[in-house]
Amino acid sequence: MFRVSERCRWIAWVQxxxxxxxxxxxxxxSDIDKVVAVLNSLFLTTGEVVSQFEDEFSRYLGCTYTVGVxxxxxxLHISLLAHGIGPGDEVITTPMTFIATANAVLHAGAxxxxxxxxxxxxxxxVSRIEKAITPRTKALMPVHLYGQMxxxxxxxxxxxxxxxxxxxxxxxxxxxxxxxxxxGQLGDAxxxxxxxxxxxxxGEGGAISTNDGxxxxxxxxxxxxxxSKGAAERYSRQYEHWDMEMLGWKHNMSNxxxxxxxxxxxxxxxxxxxxxxxxxxxxEGFSGNPNTVCLKVPAGSRSARHLFxxxxxxxxxxxxxxxxxxxxxxVAVNYRAIHLLSFYRHLFGYSRGSFPVAERIGDSTxxxxxxxxxxxxxxxxxxxxxQDVTVDSGRSRLSGSA
Length: 402
Ligand SMILES: *Cc1c(COP(=O)(O)O)cnc(C)c1O
Fold this sequence. Notes:
By secondary structure, this protein is of the alpha/beta class. The chain contains 15 helices and 12 strands. Pyridoxal-5'-phosphate (PLP) binds at residues 71-73, 97-98, 100-101, 143, 169, 171-172, 193, 195, 206.
């Protein structure tokens, strides 16, 4: 009895005090100092600091080239263009992702073709891909969902057999490995996001990593109007004329963004370790709860641990979301299956049942707070509150049907 009342008092006290944000960034003084140094310098746009970031990012990933851009959306878009993918072409991807993945295919003038996902990871189901390949298929665009890499070996062998390129949406997966492989190593290009809530962030930003020098060169042009020389080359030496060689976009990363990212790259492993520890606590905390299911990290994988999701009964998901917010816990839904969003429904005539596994995840998933600044006490509070509200919402449904 004593222990129960102690626990109640602890919960009551914690609930008065706690507010657990869905996300808090990990920007430190040293990152700010780097930005201030750029602001005090001559050169704000793409220059030395971007090159430095690109080199360090390549070194971290173990790939040859990185091209800094303004977003992962831009990265996906110009990666398709750099591989000559456009009108009349099809790109196989997943409906369980942020809309940016499929939108980038449409921006390039090509058509996204969805393939359903694995129930255990939410990643594209490699065993279903070959059935979706047509003579128009040019590329596979897998998404390493929540930080768990797709089966890149399986994808590479399908791509080689059918002469396809692989452009990885690695927005969640900077720190991930699977079977000893990292993003960008088996794909033709891997695209990253430094959006405000990603594992490293410049507020907005992105990059493409590749081992192909011709593609890297083309990406450098496509990110800046197809110009033959970037601003740094045009102004840091004797003025030189430039040419426009292709129609490019305005996707170039600035020195300000790169400065914000540089030190974060040095802390990336430490921050990953903290998120890994939090995920393990969540997984342990929920392991005895029959009303929650956690996704799996397949053997041989290290998840980048970008998002932590629990699946609950789809009938109760929105109720659980509301209750968690009532208890001042920030939540999100990553993602409702994108083929059911109005635009994609209308464009392709999709409906419920088109991709049942993705729909099931989309209807039942809840993302919980996950970031290095989350304290042990906050994690404990989230675990306890999820237990309470999932049991509660079970009870309320039972009493409602009685
Ligand atoms: C965030 C995200 C993107 C888009 O990144 P931006 O940098 O915001 O363009 C693409 N794909 C996935 C899976 C994402 O989570």
